[in-house]
Design goal:
Elements lengths: L14 H4 L18 H21 L6 E2 L3 H8 L10 H13 L2 E2 L16 H13 L10 H18 L6 E5 L2 H15 L6 E6 L4 H9 L7 E4 L9 H13 L3 E8 L11 H11 L2 E6 L9 H6 L8 E5 L11 E5 L2 H8 L31 H11 L2 H22 L4 E3 L7 E6 L8 H18 L5 E5 L2 E7 L7 H20 L1
Parallel strand pairs: 4-5, 4-6, 6-7, 7-8
Antiparallel strand pairs: 1-2, 3-9, 8-9, 10-11, 11-13, 12-13
Helix pairs in contact: 2-4, 5-13, 6-13, 7-8, 7-12, 14-16, 15-16
The chain binds pyridoxal-5'-phosphate (PLP).
Length: 500
């Protein structure tokens, strides 16, 4: 038997029973918004050339470029034109005048915030996805993509050590994953009116925002103090939860860090799981940054206990080297997501194909969804898992190497041990004996000089109010020379700032 497109299908393919009338043929390119096949190919080739040329030149350029508002406004602010311009020129402008202004996250010396370098097959997967214009909200609208997302989610489930009852979905990123996790937690707790949520004082602002959106009053989001390495203090958590229960409040969720964005800190996941189990509180792990380290032996050790969480959020656009947006959320018990998000809608009645044909829209907050899992599938199928494992291990090894370099350096000082790929340190010569205010001034100067004068880009953070320089090593293109030369520049700028 063949299907409507003359492809071979199984005899009882339900698609033939439910799909509606095939639209009129659109062979031939006649519409005003269409291009001829030759023009399409030519434009795609030119765009690909532009991108590959950028990749080639990138390491020699600066990891940041930008402009002030006035210049960009003068360049870009205009009425939409009534008549178009040649497409290659428009796309070249988009690449050179728009996209290249900002942090070049994929630069080998991009160490600020949390960078990421994608893989070329991942980029092309996004191209394919947008060209096919698939809406992966339901099985009917995207059975191939839905099955593929099930496969990718199952890979992640197994990497995390989750049971077969677990499942999830791709999201835009860690923020959406956090929101969906907390909504599932609230529903599972019976949507209490006097709910509270707990997280460490190092947790990402995305979690505070997620708690706010899902209805927790700001003064009931408890930021729990952390230890000397910025990991959540269990005693403080236990004490706060007990006080809240005594006050008649209802703890809804504890959010743990598996790689806090400022320091890379990993909260005590096993202890948190014990506590949450005993207290009947939902445990969500924000593994947006650190989650994919579980595919390495070291990461698996560091994140031991993560598999006991109720939900886990991960970002494949960080340590799995995918283009934005590639977040995902997994729930230990998939039905908790479906109970929280599935809503019947008459116009979608044809899309209900039964339990074995999941509609991803029932698992999260989006109806129309792109095919985000495809970039992971294509990249992993193309390269195999080994190079991903190696790249993640290398990012942690480079951070350890940077730490050793700093500890052996008279101008630089580690502020806390490196965690995952994050190194927090500052310029503080042994002999300088400077107060905190002067040190901050010097380090701010160094940060600014790296920003304006060096090829590298780094950022800063505050460690309990103390100013810290911060390198976040993520990219699979980064080498030890990239890290070492950046540290040498910081040292040089530091010594010059001291003698100013
Ligand atoms: C630890 C952590 N959690 C959550 C987020 C928010 O994720 P996203 O930006 O993908 O929404 C980030 C972003 O960098 C993060 O590092």
């Amino acid at each position: 038997m063949t299907n409507k497109n003359n492809n071979k299908v199984s005899q009882d393919n339900p698609r033939d029973q439910v799909a509606g009338q095939r639209p009129e043929s659109v062979d031939g390119f006649t519409g005003e918004l269409q291009m001829s096949p030759d023009a399409m190919l030519d434009l795609a080739n030119r765009t690909a050339e532009l991108i590959v040329e950028r990749f080639r030149k990138l390491p020699e350029e600066h990891a940041w470029d930008g402009e002030f508002k006035k210049e960009l406004e003068d360049q870009l602010m205009e009425d939409p034109p009534e008549h178009g311009s040649p497409a290659p020129e428009v796309l070249e402008r988009a690449a050179k005048e728009i996209l290249s202004l900002g942090v070049r996250n994929d630069h080998p010396r991009s160490f600020a915030f949390i960078p990421s370098t994608s893989t070329w097959p991942g980029v092309l997967a996004d191209f394919l996805v947008s060209a096919y214009q698939v809406n992966q909200c339901t099985w009917l609208t995207a059975s191939g993509a839905s099955q593929m997302e099930l496969v990718v989610i199952d890979w992640i489930r197994r990497w995390l050590g989750y049971p077969e009852s677990a499942g999830g979905l791709m999201t835009s990123g860690g923020s959406a994953a956090s929101l969906e996790a907390l909504v599932a937690a609230r529903e599972s707790a019976g949507a209490p009116e006097r709910g509270t949520v707990y997280m460490s004082d190092q947790s990402h602002s995305a979690l505070i925002r997620a708690a706010r959106i899902m209805g927790i009053k700001p003064d009931r989001v408890r930021l729990i103090e952390t230890d000397s390495q910025f990991r959540l203090d269990m005693e403080a958590l236990v004490r706060t939860v007990a006080q809240d229960r005594d006050a008649g409040l209802c703890p809804v969720a504890v959010c743990a860090n598996a790689g806090a964005s400022s320091t890379g800190a990993i909260d005590p996941l096993e202890h948190l799981a014990d506590f949450c189990e005993a207290e009947g509180i939902w445990l969500h792990v924000d593994a947006a940054y650190g989650g994919f380290t579980v595919i390495t032996e070291r990461g698996k050790e560091l994140l031991s206990g993560i598999e006991r969480a109720d939900t886990i959020g991960l970002d494949a656009h960080k340590l799995l080297f995918q283009p934005y947006e590639a977040g995902c959320l997994l729930a230990r018990d998939l039905s908790t997501l479906e109970r929280a998000f599935a809503v019947r809608h008459d116009i979608l009645q044809d899309t209900v194909w039964g339990a074995n044909h999941p509609n991803f829209a029932d698992r999260g907050l989006q109806l129309s969804r792109s095919v985000r899992a495809l970039k992971i599938w294509v990249s992993v199928k193309t390269f195999g898992l080994a190079p991903f494992r190696n790249a993640i291990s290398r990012s942690m090894e480079l951070a350890a190497q940077a730490e050793a370099y700093i500890r052996n350096n008279e101008t630089l000082e580690m502020l806390i041990p490196a965690s995952l790929g994050i190194v927090c340190f500052r310029v503080n010569p042994d002999h300088a004996n400077l107060d905190e205010e002067s040190l901050e001034k010097i380090n701010r100067k160094v940060l600014a000089r790296v920003f304006w004068e060096d090829r590298a880009l780094m950022s800063s953070t505050l460690l309990r109010g103390r100013f810290s320089l911060r390198l976040c090593i993520v990219n699979h293109t980064t080498t030890w020379d990239d890290v070492r030369e950046t540290l040498e520049a910081i040292e040089r700028f530091g010594n010059e700032a001291l003698s100013d």
